[in-house]
Design goal:
Helix content: 40-55%
Strand order of the largest sheet: 2-1-3-10-4-11
Distance between the termini: 58 Å
Radius of gyration: 21 Å
Strand content: 15-25%
Number of helices: 11
Amino acid sequence: MRSIFLCALALAAAAANAQSFPARPVRFIVTYPPGALNDLIARTLAPQLASLWRQQVIVDNRPGGGTLIGSELAARAAPDGHTLLLVAIAHAMNPSVYAKLPYDSVRDFAPVSQIASSPYILITNPGVPAKSVKELVALAKAKPGQLPYGSTGTGGSSHLMGVMLGMMANVDIVHVPYKGLAPALTDMIGGQINFGFGSYSTVGQHIKANRLRALAITTAKRNAAWPDIPTVSEAGLPAYQSIAWYGMVAPRGLPQPVLKKLSTEVSRIIQSKDVRENLSAQGADPVGGTPAEFGAFIKAEMKRYEKVVKDAGVTSD
């Protein structure tokens, strides 16, 4: 009887904790610098959450280390909901790329909700004599080992996009890692490298100005925002698919009532008209969903990229 009473008290305390959450400003960690799509998504959500909670939601940019720096910081934070982390595809790739992580990508985090998804865009310097993926593949086959592509770093998403293209098209392309997408784009525009992958928020302005050429998007279907850009799979690589995704997690041990409140409110906010329009302007689509759904999605992504990394023999620098 006493154990039932204690359990009831614990449940009541947890429910009260959820009702009073947040009790102070919330830190929303982003593992990329200001201006990246990850950062823009966080800054779209932060004021909406702040208005709802009547507490500050501070976007804390902690770039570097292949997202490890900010992720470790979040993993070590108190599990009370006042520290949140925006995760993306690198969260699922890193366990396969790095021999040892300072945290466990599954056990040390509580999935809250997927926020958005978007395609990557395969882009080239306009001087490259290839106006389609088929022509790019043909060019790579004609010049094995001579077609360089840039990425944000070894083991990063833009690196693995190229790895997948090389493996599925059976072509020998050269990976050139950079410390971020900005210097890679600078060299691509300048003609030092031939192609690469990026989100619309980072490459869209260059495509519009004809400084870069969009060849394809990496999702299975065309995007409603850019119906004229074909998919990589349309070029004869039907198995090629990669989605840029973004979601919220919290440190492991977050009380279930707080987790449920977070997930419900985040999912509702990202379906609001203002947020949907803001995300759409950045080339992203709102997703939402439960913690269980997001957790299962992360595990599936980890398994998929584990095979890519293993088959290609990719290791971090």
